[in-house]
Specification:
The chain has about 375 residues and is of the alpha/beta class. Helices cover about 50% and strands about 10% of the residues.
Length: about 375
């Protein structure tokens, strides 16, 4: 038996952000905490969101303290703002970091005196959160449609994966216009994140027919659009396609799970503070090569979705063509090695055993077609250094 859980309402298409106020009011919102970051809040589209909320009769309070990968401290600051302003709805606006923080704030404001780390893992959050809306400003994370929040516990240097139906938004908005002014590197990392989501959702041991269709559709869109969408003079139709693909990939991995790449990427982010999409891109080719023979038919289907000419090939040959295409895309978008991204080699050597243990502890590697040992994860980390 397979189950599929999307948000209650999903809005897509350029301009859909203009409906956010109407939806917030319908959910009973009167005093909204808008959770974001300074960069997003300085963009014109952010004022569109605030204006739409105000036009529907809501008072809007802004918390823009999510300045990097979200931490427990950032969430706690947002909770204080929510309570001090007597808010009754949370609106997350941004990439994965603000949306993940918004989700965590929403569930914590009604959780009493428990700490956020107590919710690490799956299905530990009690029901009863206030209404939650997520608007994505990057075509990548898919966080607007997932029941996950990734929050760094700085005391342990661990990126916590928190999973619960309570983290699914009541309404998600995937409006390409919200990302039109995003920095180019952020757009690239987000697009590579979406590609990783789609690939891992398709090869996951928990894949199902609905997630397969969404994942392959996302891969087709990304392969055809990502380079144009990430050019210095972007092709707006390509960015529209990437926004839709990121949402499809989010729905796919939300219901089939990610796998080894994500399990290994979280410790990289926690220790070296690299953007999540960049961490994924650094790992993707090596992890695919490690996993390929355990699911050659699946990787062959990915190659076909990537636009490779695989007719007449056996599965392994086709799969390797897909691997080459992924390496070509990541290279074309400037993906460095881990060292090239700024990771200190000495800190790497000191941290790599813990990184491998933390990757396994996340649970994601268990969904991989080839389940690795800790030693194999260490070797994969060394390959991408």
């Amino acid at each position: 038996m397979a189950q599929f859980h999307p948000p209650r309402d999903i809005y897509t298409g350029r301009g859909c952000r203009e409906s956010v106020g109407e939806k917030a009011a319908a959910l009973g919102g009167r005093r909204a905490l808008l959770v974001s970051d300074p960069g997003v809040m300085s963009a014109p589209a952010a004022e569109d969101v605030r204006s739409a909320l105000r036009a529907a009769g809501l008072t809007v309070f802004t918390y823009d303290g999510v300045t990097a990968e979200p931490t427990v401290a950032m969430v706690e600051a947002g909770i204080r703002d929510y309570r001090s302003n007597d808010c009754d709805i949370v609106v997350g606006l941004g990439g994965g970091s603000p949306m993940d923080a918004a989700k965590a704030i929403a569930v914590m404001v009604s959780a009493g005196e428990v700490s956020l780390p107590s919710f690490e893992g799956a299905n530990k959050i009690p029901p009863g959160r206030p209404p939650l809306i997520c608007l994505s400003t990057t075509a990548g994370t898919g966080s607007e449609v997932t029941p996950f929040s990734i929050i760094t516990d700085q005391e342990r240097d661990v990126k916590m994966l928190i999973a619960s139906p309570e983290l699914l938004s009541d309404a998600s908005f995937s409006d390409p216009a919200l990302g039109d002014t995003a920095p180019l590197r952020a757009t690239i990392y987000a697009g590579l994140d979406a590609l990783t989501h789609a690939i891992e959702a398709y090869v996951s041991r928990r894949a199902q027919p609905l997630t397969d269709d969404l994942a392959l559709s996302a891969i087709r869109r990304i392969s055809a659009s990502i380079v144009a969408a990430c050019s210095e003079e972007p092709h707006w139709a390509a960015r529209d396609e990437m926004t839709l693909a990121a949402m499809e990939a989010g729905l796919a991995f939300a219901n089939s799970s990610v796998a080894l790449v994500h399990g290994m990427a979280r410790p990289i982010g926690a220790i070296f503070h690299l953007p999540h999409g960049l961490s994924n891109a650094i790992l993707l080719g090596s992890v695919m090569e490690f996993s390929l023979e355990a699911a050659a038919e699946r990787y062959a289907s990915i190659a076909d979705a990537l636009g490779c000419h695989v007719a007449g090939m056996d599965a392994t040959e086709a799969a390797r063509l897909g691997l080459d295409r992924v390496k070509e895309l990541t290279a074309a978008l400037g993906t460095p090695t881990l060292r090239g991204a700024g990771a200190d080699p000495d800190l790497f050597e000191e941290s790599v055993p813990k990184m491998a243990d933390d990757a396994l502890a996340s649970g994601s590697p268990a969904n991989n077609p080839r389940v690795p040992t800790a030693d194999e994860i260490v070797q994969l980390y060394r390959e991408v250094l």
